[in-house]
Specification:
Blueprint: E1 3-8, H1 18-33, E2 38-43, H2 44-47, H3 54-62, H4 69-77, E3 80-86, H5 94-103, E4 110-113, E5 116-119, E6 125-131, H6 148-158, E7 162-168, H7 176-196
Parallel strand pairs: 1-2, 1-3, 3-6, 6-7
Antiparallel strand pairs: 4-5
Helix pairs in contact: 1-7
The structure holds flavin mononucleotide.
């Protein structure tokens, strides 16, 4: 059975978060098209993933069970990923970064070989759903955006090259009818992407 992970990194609900609202719209559309698929939500704020401390690295180096292992295995076993994150200080919220630190386990997500690093998560697909206060696409500050580009590069590293994004830009800059129009457009885009994911 196709397994989807809906990985959401926002402390607020969808009435107060554009990224969560857009992500949920995309997921609803996906579910409508694929009612038999198994969807698991990973709400990284509810799970309270913590940074990697000395004990975690020691466990890794000595081959002891780590707090990361079950999450890395769950990630590797899934077929599709939907990441949801707002742009915070040019990147993803730190809870999402912690989650990435959990799933990026050598031998599960990637492997070191004599030819270099090889991603082990082939034949999988990912979508990034984001929201930004300002405008970045095609702007001089484009390279300062490190949320979507971070998740895209992490996925590429582990072998997931089928990667799409739906991103609401200008959430803090737009007002009134402009905000309404832009948000409607992005919600439609999200629904369309969810239906063909
Ligand atoms: C802690 C914090 C940091 C933010 N940093 C940025 C930023 O670096 N660039 C930007 O364009 N907007 C920034 N914003 C604005 C958010 O990206 C914007 O409000 C976006 O809609 C957040 O998604 P959300 O509606 O799901 O919360 C920040 C907002 C917060 C609360």
């Amino acid at each position: 059975m196709t397994e989807v992970l809906f990985i959401v990194s926002h402390p607020l609900d969808s009435t107060k978060s554009w990224s969560r609202k857009i992500g949920e719209k995309l997921l609803a559309s996906y579910r409508e098209k694929n009612p038999s698929h198994k969807v698991t939500t990973i709400d990284v704020y509810k799970e309270e993933f913590t940074p990697l401390y000395e004990k975690d690295l020691t466990d890794m180096m000595t081959g002891s069970p780590t707090k990361m292992l079950p999450w890395a295995k769950q990630f590797a076993a899934a077929d599709k990923y939907i990441f949801v994150a707002p742009l915070w200080n040019f990147s993803v919220p730190s809870q999402m970064k912690c989650y990435i630190d959990y799933i990026m386990q050598p031998g599960i997500a990637f492997r070191y070989t004599e030819q270099g690093v090889v991603g082990l998560l082939k034949e999988k697909k990912a979508i990034f759903v984001g929201s930004r206060g300002g405008f970045y696409k095609g702007q001089p500050i484009e390279s300062m955006e490190m949320a979507e580009s971070y998740i895209r590069n992490v996925m590429k590293f582990v072998g997931v090259t089928d990667f799409s994004s739906v991103i609401f830009e200008g959430a803090s800059a737009l007002r009134g009818a402009d905000l309404e129009k832009a948000s409607e457009k992005i919600l439609q885009e999200a629904a369309a992407l969810g239906a063909q994911f």
